[in-house]
Structure formats: C-alpha cells, structure tokens
Design a protein that fits this description.
Pfam families: HpcH_HpaI. By secondary structure, the chain is of the alpha/beta class. The chain has twelve helices and ten strands. An eight-stranded parallel β-barrel has the order 1-2-3-4-5-6-7-8, surrounded by four helices. Strands 9-10 form a two-stranded antiparallel sheet. The two termini are about 35 Å apart.
Length: about 290
C-alpha cells in the first residue's frame, strides 16, 4: 500500500466483499478510500465466501492508491472472530467497527487488534449509527486523543440511525442534520476524521451533489459512497475550489504586507489572524481549513 496517511478522505466507497465484479473494479476507481464490507451488505449465507474473496483480494496485493478499510461484523456476533482472522491475514489500513455504542466497544476492538497487530499499524474507524452512540459520542470521540488507542475516524451510519430512531430521511435531511452536526463536533473535539453517510439514490446525481455540498458545509471531511458514479463529484466538491484558494492566498498576502497587525480588512471584510491560520491550512491542503458558506 502506497498511500500517504495525510492524504484527504473525500470519497470513501463501500464495496461488498461478496461482489467479485465490484472488487475487481477497485483498482480503476479514484476513491480516496474503499471500505470492503463484510457486514450489512453481505447476507448471512454469503459471509464465509465473502471473507475468502476478501483475503484473495488482499493476497493479490492490489497496487492502488486508495486506503483500504475492512468493515467487520460486530466482534460479539457469530462472525466476529472469523472476521478478525481475516483482518489478521489482510492487514488493512483500518478496521471499521459497526454498531458502536460505547467507548468500551472501541477499547475491546483495540485489545483484540493488539493480539494480531502489536505495532498498532491498523487503525480503527467507528460507525456512528445507534442512539446509544449518539448519547455517548463525546466519550467515544475522546479516545481519539488517546495516542495509545487506534481510533481515527467516525463514519455516519444514517440508514441504521434512521431505522433505530424513527428519524425520517427526507430529501433535505432536515431531521438528520442535528445528529450529523453532533458527529462533526465530537470528531473535531477528538481530533478524528469524520465522514457523512451514504446517499441511497445513486441514480440522482444532482441530489447527491447537493448532499455533498451540505456535508462539506457542515464540516465533514468527505462522504461515504455506494456507487462508482458518485466518486467524481465527491472529489470535486470536497476539494478546495479556485475561489477559495484565491481568497486564502489574498489573506496570506495581506498579513505578509501588514505583519504587526492582529486584524485587517480585505474588500470590506474583517480578517483576523485565525483566518490567516485557516487560510494557511487550506493552502497546505488541510481539509480543516475548508470553511465556506
Ligand atoms: N463498488 C465497486 N463497483 C461497483 C459498486 C461498488 N460499490 N457498485 C456498482 N459497481 C460496479 C458494478 O459491479 C458494475 O460493474 P460492471 O460495469 O463491471 O458490470 C458497475 O459498477 C455498474 O453498476 P450498476 O449496474 O449501476 O449497479 P449494480 O446494480 O451492479 O449495483 C448496488 C447497485 C447498490 C447493489 C451496488 O452499487 C452496491 O452494492 N453498492 C454498495 C452497497 C454497500 O456496500 N452497502 C453497505 C454500506 S451502506
Ligand atoms: Mg449500518
């Protein structure tokens, strides 16, 4: 695997490990990361075959730039220990844990991974998709500050969250947005990356692009995807656009011209040193700097 760990996480595509055609496509796709799914996209009777396909995929040493993440079944499920064996064989960049409820779930996974990966090279990502996770989200995110823990990313599981809460998935997502914002807030407090949930209607790319823009404005690093057709617009929308880059450069230049100042104005807009820091991050390619209306 050749990927730079500091690279962005804009487009993150789920690929069912049970689908050989989809697995074969991975090397041709421009997704920043791929989540190879052993959980909900794989029917119970397909689990064993999917695990074998997954191991064959990793054994072939795919030479592609995407980060490779395996979504396992819950460790306390009937498939948990076999999935962990597959992780041991595959050595992905990270393991995505489904149905996380409490910090204890993350710590249990951390301990289980320590048995097979003492050097802690394999990261942990957490699905935030249960009402309990929403109530415990601050404590879960705080593990991101623990350098000994592996936690690196929250993934919004909006389909499960809607199922378990009764939240209606309206096209404008107005009833989901408060939960999504909580995820962003907690992730930032824990220095975690955070990814928006999937858009199920993969044929409606206009609605999808609007959802991506909303997610970016909410502070998400990127979006989880279900279909290759969703990758290109995700990468474009979550990347800094030329207008944003030009504005950032103007801020950097203005402060360079007025080095002693704490606050200046550019075209009638107040600009403080905190904006300078944001602009510098944006120019450095850091997604945290992408604050736009
Ligand atoms: N990853 C990689 N390739 C994919 C893909 C994915 N997620 N989804 C579709 N493809 C491939 C198909 O295999 C097909 O390949 P082909 O051109 O070689 O035949 C091509 O893209 C076009 O696919 P299409 O016919 O438009 O869709 P489909 O009916 O094959 O699949 C879904 C539709 C929804 C079943 C499929 O996109 C999918 O399984 N998505 C992921 C679901 C998932 O993981 N859910 C769990 C998390 S929410
Ligand atoms: Mg789920």
């Amino acid at each position: 695997m050749t990927r730079d760990p500091a690279a962005p996480l804009r487009s993150v595509l789920y690929v069912p490990a049970s689908n050989p055609k989809a697995l074969a496509k991975i090397g041709t796709l421009a997704a920043d990361a791929v989540i190879l799914d052993l959980e909900d996209a794989v029917a119970p009777e397909e689990k064993a075959a999917a695990r074998e396909r997954l191991c064959a995929f990793f054994a072939a040493k795919p030479d592609q730039p995407a980060l490779l993440v395996i979504r396992i079944n819950a460790l306390n499920s009937e498939w948990g220990s076999s999935d962990l064996e597959a992780v041991k064989a595959c050595r992905p960049d990270a393991v995505l844990l489904p149905k996380v409820d409490t910090p204890r779930d993350i710590l249990a996974a951390d301990d289980a991974l320590d048995e097979i990966d003492a050097s802690k090279r394999i990261g942990v990502w957490a699905m935030i998709e249960t009402p309990k996770a929403m109530l415990n989200i601050g404590a879960i995110a705080a593990l991101g500050r623990d350098r000994a823990a592996r936690l690196g990313c929250f993934v919004a599981g909006t389909n499960d969250l809607a199922k378990d809460t009764g939240i209606r998935m309206t096209p404008d997502r107005r009833y989901l947005v408060p939960a999504l914002s909580q995820m962003v807030m907690a992730a930032r407090a824990g220095s975690l990356a955070v990814l928006d949930g999937v858009s199920n209607d993969f044929r409606d790319l206009d609605a999808f692009a609007a959802e991506c823009r909303e997610a970016r404005n909410m502070g998400f690093d990127g979006k989880t995807l279900i279909h290759p057709a969703q990758i290109a617009s995700t990468n474009a929308i979550f990347a800094p656009n030329p207008k944003e880059l030009a504005e950032a450069q103007a801020i950097v230049d203005a402060f360079a011209d007025q080095p002693g100042k704490g606050v200046i104005q550019i075209n009638g807009r107040m600009v403080e040193r905190l904006h300078l820091a944001q602009a510098e991050r944006l120019l450095a390619g850091d997604k945290e700097g992408n604050e736009q209306p």
